[in-house]
Specification:
Elements lengths: L8 H29 L3 H6 L3 H25 L8 H17 L2 H25 L7 H9 L11 H6 L12 H23 L6 H32 L3 H14 L2
Helix pairs in contact: 1-9, 1-10, 3-5, 3-8, 4-5, 4-9, 5-6, 5-8, 5-9, 6-8, 8-9
Length: 251
């Protein structure tokens, strides 16, 4: 039985259509960056030295741990920023990180991860959720479980939306351990692009622009679905499937 506060089917359909547009826009940025860099995501990873590839997962896990503490600690000091400002900040950091090649790109990694996580937390708040709630913090981490902007696998993009049930009983550290391998591949592509000779700062700026734009869009999709489930009274799984259909129908 529905209540008067629940959304009618037409409004739910419109909301799903808007989220589908965000989802498609997120993927489009990655393809544009690939065209700029003139390569494929898989080939980018091969450019990294073996010693870096071997340590990438551990570095990513540490970056996420640092980002969780820094992003949460900054909320009482620095207000949430507009999406364009988060993108501009990350783009500038990417340029600085790429200017010095791989060493500075590695040093920039936890800083960029913090900016991304803080932006995701801000979007959670925008949709009416409390980023200081432990469960919402885990939801914010889960956004990193989506495919990166250089990944063309739409199925991987959608899979993270269905993974919310796995949060039950999971600790933040446990969730980070599960997300880190996937995010390591994503951030490895970014590092490899920044390490490309000659491109340097330009590649760093371009990839950070793509990553910040992508994860902000995916955060809107994730928390938009959560809000829609709460307001419509419809099961979240049902809304995820409706989004999946909407994303694949209009190309």
């Amino acid at each position: 039985m529905t209540t008067g506060t629940e959304l009618d089917p037409v409004n739910v359909e419109n909301e799903i259509a808007q989220l589908a547009r965000r989802h498609r826009a997120a993927g489009g940025v990655g393809l544009q960056i690939l065209n700029i860099l003139g390569g494929q995501a898989e080939n980018l990873l091969e450019r990294l030295p073996d010693r870096v590839k071997e340590r990438l997962e551990g570095a990513t896990e540490r970056a996420l741990e640092v980002a969780m503490g820094a992003a949460a600690g900054s909320r009482g000091v620095v207000p949430d920023q507009k999406g364009w400002l988060n993108t501009a900040l990350a783009t500038a950091m990417g340029a600085a990180g790429g200017a010095g090649g791989l060493p500075t790109a590695l040093a920039e990694l936890p800083v960029t991860t913090t900016v991304l996580l803080r932006a995701i937390q801000g979007i959670a708040a925008e949709h009416g959720f409390d980023p200081d709630d432990p469960e919402i913090r885990k939801e914010c981490l889960l956004v990193f479980g989506s495919a990166g902007p250089l990944d063309r696998d739409d199925g991987a993009d959608m899979a993270f939306l269905s993974a919310r049930v796995t949060l039950t009983g999971a600790t933040v550290h446990g969730l980070i351990s599960r997300i880190a391998p996937r995010l390591a591949t994503v951030l490895g592509q970014k590092l490899a692009a920044q390490a490309v000779p000659v491109l340097g700062a330009a590649a760093g700026a371009a990839t950070n622009y793509a990553y910040t734009s992508y994860y902000q869009q995916m955060a809107h999709v994730h928390f938009g679905l959560n809000r829609l489930a709460r307001e419509s009274g419809r099961p979240r799984g049902e809304l995820v499937e409706a989004l999946r259909v909407a994303v694949t129908q209009k190309r």
